[in-house]
């Protein structure tokens, strides 16, 4: 399983090199274009600040008051059924609904459990391998006026469920051996 | 929906805080969380600037288009209902590539364009066609090469190796995407015949009525 760790370590430098070399070979002014592109992120990040403040406060209150422990305790039987640590269930519930809310929750969980703990790794894998299903469906179907989505939601939730179970399984395999 | 979740979390948190006698911790959490949100945004900004800058280079050099043309053959298999000369295929490919490269802002316009083109080929305008369903499911399976914001979160939380999780994410998302594709293919083929086809005219009529109602 060392190969998966190796791939993880090399992924970012290799992609960056590939982009830069292709750019240079095709006469792109790499640095100028880089700076120009980097500017675009500033507006994006500034735009999500208000959302993040609201969600961070809600999650902070939810955890500090002990409500999070209650929720984790309540869903324990379901979590055990699928062999998922019950601490990650709040994320599994929130993830399909809102991207920025799960970003805030992941940040909170990584700080609580530690990013290099087993739970921290499982949380990372789950959030990295899933999407805001309800948001995507609402935006895209709403844009063209579709009202009946037939089996789409079922298939998307099945995919997301498999992603979650595999995340737990692969983290156990790689980091717990 | 977020209105209810946000309100619910706060009110449920306050009530549990009162019952548990933890209101001092709750108060501290409110103040600390608000400033944590700003710290996180600043941390995110760094890696996101780096990534969009690099992607701009990939875009200018034509690398994005090259990747898109490599993916064209998959489109034929996944979306059998699209004629080869339809602009839908191009929009779908560009949407998928933008998603894979983590260009969230660029992915949505391509996605909307793809939906418009797919809708032109859709005989029942208020119901998803098999191709639209496939497109939506692939879009809800997260296919991202480098999960940039997650890595920033892990680094901020003090991880010794923030990127070590990438391999796991690739495997988990590949499994999720394959499940989604197979589930969609099976579900759309079992539902094509029988119920939905018989009811198609009825639905179409109902949809038309609904359309008029809205437009009036």
Describe the structure.
The complex is a heterodimer of chains A (177) and B (216). Chain A is mainly α. Chain A has one domain (48-175). Chain A contains 9 helices and no strands. In chain A, α2 crosses α6 and α6 (99-113) runs antiparallel to α7 (118-128). Chain B folds into 2 domains: 1-44, no CATH class; 62-215, no CATH class. Chain B is mostly helical and 216 residues long. Chain B has helices at residues 2-20, 23-60, 63-78, 87-100, 104-120, 130-140, 148-156, 166-192, 195-198, 200-215. Chain B has 10 helices and no strands. Residues 193-198 and 209-216 of chain B have low confidence and may be disordered. The longest helix of chain B is centred in the N-terminal third of the chain and has 38 residues, at 23-60. Classes of the chains: A mainly alpha (177), B mainly alpha (216). Chains A and B meet through α1, α2, α6, α7 and α8 of A and α1, α2, α5, α6 and α7 of B.
Secondary structure blueprint with pairings:
The complex is a heterodimer of chains A (177) and B (216).
Chain A: H1 2-25, H2 30-64, H3 67-74, H4 76-82, H5 89-94, H6 99-113, H7 118-128, H8 133-144, H9 152-175
Helix pairs in contact in A: 2-6, 6-7, 7-9
Chain B: H1 2-20, H2 23-60, H3 63-78, H4 87-100, H5 104-120, H6 130-140, H7 148-156, H8 166-192, H9 195-198, H10 200-215
* Percent of residues in helices of chain B: over 70%
| Ends distance of chain B | 28 Å
Whole-number count of domains of chain A:
1
Major sheet size, sense and barrel closure of chain B:
none
Low-confidence stretches of chain A: none
Overall geometry of chain B comes to globular
Quaternary class: heterodimer
Q: Average the pLDDT over all residues of chain A and give the rounded result.
A: 91
Number of domains of chain B: 2
How many helix segments of chain A? 9
| Shape, principal axes of CA atoms of chain A | globular
Kindly state the number of beta strands of chain B: 0
Helix content percent band of chain A = over 70%
- Percentage beta strand of chain A: under 5%
Strand content of chain B: under 5%
* Record field, number of beta strands of chain A: 0
């Amino acid at each position: 399983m060392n190969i998966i760790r190796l791939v993880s370590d090399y992924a970012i430098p290799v992609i960056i090199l590939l982009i830069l070399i292709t750019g240079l070979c095709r006469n792109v002014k790499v640095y100028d274009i880089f700076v120009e592109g980097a500017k675009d992120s500033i507006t994006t990040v500034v735009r999500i600040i208000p959302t993040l403040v609201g969600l961070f406060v809600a999650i902070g209150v939810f955890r500090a008051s002990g409500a999070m422990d209650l929720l984790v305790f309540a869903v324990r039987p379901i979590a055990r059924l699928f062999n998922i640590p019950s601490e990650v269930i709040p994320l599994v519930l929130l993830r399909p609904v809102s991207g920025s809310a799960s970003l805030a929750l992941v940040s909170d969980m990584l700080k609580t459990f530690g990013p290099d703990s087993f739970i921290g790794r499982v949380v990372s894998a789950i959030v990295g391998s899933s999407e805001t299903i309800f948001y995507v469906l609402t935006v895209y179907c709403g844009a063209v006026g579709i009202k009946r989505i037939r089996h789409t939601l079922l298939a998307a939730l099945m995919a997301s469920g498999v992603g979650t179970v595999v995340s737990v399984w692969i983290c156990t395999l790689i980091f717990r051996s | 929906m977020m209105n209810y979740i946000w309100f619910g979390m706060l009110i449920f948190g306050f009530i549990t805080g009162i019952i548990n006698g933890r209101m001092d911790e709750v108060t501290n959490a409110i103040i600390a969380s608000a400033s944590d949100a700003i710290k996180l945004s600043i941390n995110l900004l760094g890696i996101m600037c780096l990534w969009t800058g690099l992607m701009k280079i990939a875009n200018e050099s034509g690398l994005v288009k090259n990747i898109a043309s490599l993916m064209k053959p998959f489109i034929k298999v996944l979306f059998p209902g699209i004629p080869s000369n339809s602009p839908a295929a191009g929009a779908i490919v560009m949407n998928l590539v933008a998603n894979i490269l983590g260009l969230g802002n660029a992915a949505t316009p391509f996605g909307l364009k793809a939906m418009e083109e797919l809708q032109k080929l859709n005989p029942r305008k208020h119901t998803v066609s098999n191709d639209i369903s496939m497109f939506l499911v692939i879009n809800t399976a997260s296919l991202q090469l480098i999960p940039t914001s997650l890595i920033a979160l892990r680094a901020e939380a003090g991880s010794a190796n923030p990127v070590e999780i990438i391999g796991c994410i690739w495997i988990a998302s590949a499994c999720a995407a394959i499940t989604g594709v197979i589930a969609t293919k099976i579900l759309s083929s079992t539902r094509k015949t029988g119920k939905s086809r018989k009811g198609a005219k009825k639905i179409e009529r109902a949809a038309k009525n609904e359309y008029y109602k809205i437009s009036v």
